[in-house]
Amino acid sequence: MKKNPIGAIVVLLATVVVFLGLCLPFYKVDAFGINMSVSLMYTDSVSVVGVIWAAFAVLTLLFAIIGVKVPVLIFGILTSMGMFLSYGLNNSSLEEYEALGAFVEKGNGNSLCLAGAIAILIAAIIYTSTTKSKKNS
Q1: Are 1 and 134 in contact (CB under 8 A)?
Q2: Number of C-beta neighbours around residue 111 at 10 A
Q3: How much is the average pLDDT of 105-110?
Q4: What pTM value is reported for the model?
Q5: Smallest Cα–Cα separation from 106: which of 118, 120, 121, 93?
Q6: 35-92 tens-digit pLDDT
Q7: Phi, psi of 128 (to 5 degrees)
Q8: Element (H, E) at 112
Q9: Which among 53, 30, 31, 29 has a CA at the least distance from the CA of 40?
């Protein structure tokens, strides 16, 4: 495959958005006198789910830098699906906390998680569609 530097830069920017979404506070809960701030990457210890989505994003970037189209698309889709899943599951649990009377505030990571999922998917599609194979050159 022929390398695509502009596509790799787009994937890099999307990967940064994914990492910001994983590291910034996803939500803050104030219940029964306890304040808690949770991100997808850092809780009391490192979250396995956050590490998996971060690894998929890094693999997407790595394959984009190497110049291989198909794995960029595959890992971009996997990262996007995982981030959407985390976004949906965490927001449904937030509604449960609110139903119990807790004060829940969505953090910046919540919005960036959704933006990162969309960005990495779009970046993978852009990279795949703009990278030419050696046969075409």
Answers
A1: yes
A2: 15
A3: 82
A4: 0.78
A5: 93
A6: 777 777 766 555 677 788 888 889 998 988 888 888 888 998 998 888 888 777 777 7
A7: -65, -40
A8: helix 108-130
A9: 53
